[in-house]
Amino acid sequence: MTFATLGLIEPLLRSLETLGYQTPTPVQAQAIPAVLAGRDLMAAAQTGTGKTAGFALPLLQLLAMEGPKVTANSVRALILVPTRELAEQVHEAVRQYAENLPLRTYAVYGGVSINPQMMKLRSGVDLLVATPGRLLDLFRQNALKFNQLQTLVLDEADRMLDLGFSEELANIYRALPKKRQTLLFSATFSDDIRLLAGQMLNDPLSIEVSPRNVAANTVKQWIVTVDKKRKPELFVHLMRKGKWKQVLVFAKTRNGVDALVEKLQGLGINADGIHGDKPQATRQRALDRFKASEVQILVATDVAARGLDIEDLPLVVNFDLPIVAEDYIHRIGRTGRAGSTGEAISLVCADEVNLLSAIEMLTRQTLKRQNEPDFEPEHRVPDTDASGQVVKKPKKPKKPKASGGGGGKRNLGKWVDSGEVAPAEPSIKPVRKVPVFNTGPRKRKP
Ligand code: AMP
């Protein structure tokens, strides 16, 4: 199969030739003809599958071939994305695909001045990439009209809901013409996403290019257990031992990012960090330098790293496990992309055991443990498996204390779980159901 047989027009084929795309990826093979035929889409596709071209190519073709010329402050196709970085990245891809077409494309997002964006929108834009919050600001200030809108794309819809954009999406949805084509892309499909799809899509074609909720199988995944306080030391040790050249590292919080970057830089390691507190220009610069291999280690929070397209990234390290298990799939999706192989290593400490268990249950696999000599944790990480159970091996019985005060938490050693008591009989392995995680809407900026 070729892009020509999918029905793409010559100016797009020329752009693809320039970019060196020879064969359509599975998501492209399914999405391109369906979008050209005017169908709504509900596509389960992870970043790295070529989904951007899957929706952008046919969209550009429809814009070039059909419909009236765009009028002042109007937009004919809208791509909604969760983060500024993704807006830039998707727009850059669109710009490349549209190189030989007489179409105006643009990206708007928050964190930068709104005035230049308002100016740019005055003459109308055929295809606009936007984050939901800034799009609504522009709409409310009359810088944007939707009367010409023919297609809406929700890219990384699951992430938009995770980031708490559901209200913005509802407001945008109300402002759009009812008659339009809608394409929804999501790496994972929760019940909330299915609800959203039910409201927004009309007889959609469902496309699933990777099994539901299963992490990319081109990525070799393993964990190293370690005490929390020794994680930075272990990271540096593994980095030197493995001679890591380019690593994207995920930390849970902005402070965590800053602390690790500071520690690495203090050791003379070429590291930089991106998170929501940093100005957009600084984040983009760090990312560009990482992509250009001028920065060796890029430490990021989930939001800042969402959807980043970094070619041939060999390794992702989860310095902290994500709070929401589905983020694990997004994180490791940065490597092993477009058919190449990659590696994802997670440093796991005892109080992350429930997060680990949730990830294993979601991805239906037990992550291989590889202990590092000299870093074996004092606070053991209980065994977990893909069934979602945490198995606590019995501890050696302690000598009974004369005072009789040894019950409850203290008997369990340092890894404690309130409400449990140590096993009376060492031969019995207590099995505990893992609590269900709240995967509902989260705050905008973790
Ligand atoms: P995406 O999943 O849209 O983020 O795309 C992942 C990467 O694959 C990007 O670097 C694209 O430029 C690249 N890509 C997309 N489609 C193709 C294709 N058909 N052939 C080669 N590379 C592609």
TrEMBL record:
Q: What class of enzyme is it?
A: hydrolase
Alphabetized SUPFAM superfamilies for the sequence? P-loop containing nucleoside triphosphate hydrolases
Q: Where is this motif: Q motif?
A: 1-29
Chain segments annotated as transmembrane: none
Q: Which domain of life is it from?
A: Bacteria
Native species: Pseudomonas azerbaijanorientalis
| Protein name (database record) | DEAD/DEAH box helicase
Repeat recorded as keyword? no
What are the EC numbers? 3.6.4.-
Q: Which family does it belong to?
A: Belongs to the DEAD box helicase family.
Which SMART domains does the record cross-reference, listed alphabetically?
A: DEXDc (SM00487), HELICc (SM00490)
**Highest classification ranks of the organism:** Bacteria, Pseudomonadati, Pseudomonadota, Gammaproteobacteria, Pseudomonadales
Signal peptide start-end: none
- Give any GO molecular function from the UniProt entry: hydrolase activity
Residues covered by region (Disordered):
369-446
